[in-house]
Design brief:
The protein is of the alpha+beta class and about 170 residues long. About 50% of the residues lie in helices and about 20% in strands. It is built from 8 helices and 5 strands; from the N terminus they run ααβββαββααααα. Helix 1 (about 5-15) packs parallel to helix 5, helix 2 packs parallel to helix 3 (about 65-80) and helix 7 crosses helix 8. The protein starts with a helix and ends in a 9-residue tail after the last helix.
């Protein structure tokens, strides 16, 4: 198990979350982070801004509700895993962005935050238990049912199931 998985599991245990769906907005609030919907460039999903012990998560208000859930979970990953990158502004601020680069998983911190988000929103034990309880004729049906239970997009659930070794290939 890698650092991101452990951090997500630890947060779920701290917050005593035992069943899906996990609410990343409520988790952010419980961690003292303010989530603010914002008008952002289309390729920017969200950002994490930390200053003087305060934390704001900006999330693209134009993205779908499922994408916003994943974005907030992703930013919580940065909050729990990373110090943040410097951004030159008029004040001393550290910021992380979630954009198309993070989605391509080419940056180590972005890979970590994506992994954290997946492990937070679809925790392995919960996914395995749910998958065992679902009767499904096809992989597509399994993905659809679990995506609904965990409030993830079908694409995100497909990747989660593949990464957990529950399915061997994409359902899309």
């Amino acid at each position: 198990m890698v650092k991101a998985d452990i951090a997500a599991r630890t947060l779920l245990e701290e917050m005593q979350i035992l069943t899906p769906p996990v609410d990343p907005f409520a988790l952010a609030e419980r961690l003292g982070a303010v989530v603010v919907p914002q008008c952002l460039d289309g390729d920017v999903s969200g950002m994490l801004l930390r200053r003087d012990g305060n934390c704001v998560i900006g999330v693209n208000q134009d993205h779908s509700p499922l994408r916003r859930r994943f974005t907030v979970a992703h930013e919580l990953g940065h909050l729990r895993l990373h110090e943040g990158r410097p951004l030159i502004l008029d004040t001393d601020v550290r910021v992380n962005y979630r954009n198309t680069v993070s989605g391509m998983a080419t940056d180590r911190e972005e890979i970590d935050a994506n992994r954290f988000a997946a492990a937070l929103l679809a925790p392995e034990p919960m996914v395995r238990q749910a998958a065992q309880q679902v009767t499904f004729p096809t992989v597509e049906d399994l993905v659809k049912v679990l995506a609904g239970q965990f409030q993830l997009s079908e694409t995100a659930m497909t990747y989660r199931l593949m990464n957990l070794g529950i399915i061997s290939g994409p359902a899309f």
